[in-house]
Amino acid sequence: MTDRLPLRVLASLWVALAMVAGGMAVWLWMESDAAWRTHLDRAYVAGLALHDSLENGSALPAGLSISQLRDAPDLPPGWRQTLITLTGGGRPDLSRGDRLSLRIQSPDLLYPVAEVQSLGGGSQAAGLASVTRTLARFCSQPRLFVQQDAGPWIRVDGDAVWGCGAGPSDRRLLAGAVGVGALALLLGWVAEVSSAFAAFAAALRDHRARTATLPVGGVDELRQTAEAVNAYVAQDRAALENRAMVLSGVSHDLGTPATRLRLRSALIEDPALREKLERDIDEMTAMIDGVLTYTRAEIGSEPFRQLSLTSLAEAVVADYQDVGMAVTLRPAPVRTAGAGNLFARAITRPKVESSAILMRGQPTALRRALTNLIDNALKYGREAVVTVDGDASDARIAVEDRGSVLTPQDLQRLTGAFQRGGNIGLSPGVGLGLAIVSTIAAQHGGRLEFDRGPEGLEARLILCRNWA
């Protein structure tokens, strides 16, 4: 239910959560660091008290006990031993006072002697305190043996002070995990919101945006945007359908008066007048049919299905050839491909593929688009040459005319509605042919392009083979 909240509220909640988690992580880190410093200070103070007990016979600090050995301590097999000697000055190079010999035996490690001596300061007590503090720094179960001058060795048991169990729990890892976890959650939420907006933008750019309902989800602002766009799309589609319905009704209603006009015009004795009247009637009906066709192409309600673009072009060209029009189908150029490997030179050989260009599309719309291109080529040139080609992603229909004086810029202008060429003469039409072709191309994820060929202008209809 949180995705129904406004974005500003969700952002405020996440920022507050991040601040709380950050504060908790800092508190855990500082508290753990303070507890660790207290543990080391306690071990240092215990070392000072141990030296005073050895020197003056005072009471041992809590957690420490001593026992006298008859012989020098033996090193157990596999253990490591660190030897340290402290004088009255706290360092071996100062010879005044009694010498204090230390043996630290550990099953895990050798202790850093240089660091122990540098922390010793100027007294033997400080040196011993630095030793106990160093023992508390590392998690081990060491044995500490002490000898004053040539006296007996004394074992000091201080697991309660410097053993592994004596150290405080280190919650710095937990603090880091809290901070990183809060950051990961915040970044994850940001990525989720961003991906929701990106998915909505992709759906809005998709070719089905005008015919399909966009998904409604995500934060409240995105949900409201999707609902508004869906309402606009529904209104736009309803307006297109209503326009098509009105035009269809007008076309149907004009059919009867147009038929009566044709019959009455046949009774006119003046041939020139009769021809002009019939031409006006044909232009009127063609205009209505053209606008109706353009509106239906905008709606694009015809379902997509698998088809052979090659077979469709062959059928359209055959229809023109049956009535003696100069329309031909030119085979697609044969491509070659190189085949080789690391040890042999590539050999050029014919590309093996089926001559049929298969794709998903709207058959009626594609037939109308090809027919319009051929009619345009015959209208502005002397003949039309059709070529069907394609690759793995796109299918192409090229229609080239002969002797057209139009430029590619002229044809780009003619893709607008109700635009006609300057050399059209008395040819029938209302200027919607290329506009319909361009609309159909966009509905198939493609485009309409023009180029100057060796003998005339070439119109290329580029279509996506798996657009829907």
UniProtKB/TrEMBL annotation:
Keywords of the record: ATP-binding, Cell membrane, Kinase, Membrane, Nucleotide-binding, Transferase, Transmembrane, Transmembrane helix
Known EC number: 2.7.13.3
Catalytic activity: ATP + protein L-histidine = ADP + protein N-phospho-L-histidine
Membrane topology, record value: Multi-pass membrane protein
SUPFAM superfamilies in the cross-refs: ATPase domain of HSP90 chaperone/DNA topoisomerase II/histidine kinase, Homodimeric domain of signal transducing histidine kinase
Chief localization: membrane
Transmembrane segments: 12-30
Superkingdom of the organism of origin: Bacteria
Single GO term (MF): kinase activity
Domain Histidine kinase positions: 249-463
Localization per Swiss-Prot or TrEMBL: Cell membrane
Protein name per UniProt: histidine kinase
Taxonomic classification: Bacteria, Pseudomonadati, Pseudomonadota, Alphaproteobacteria, Rhodobacterales
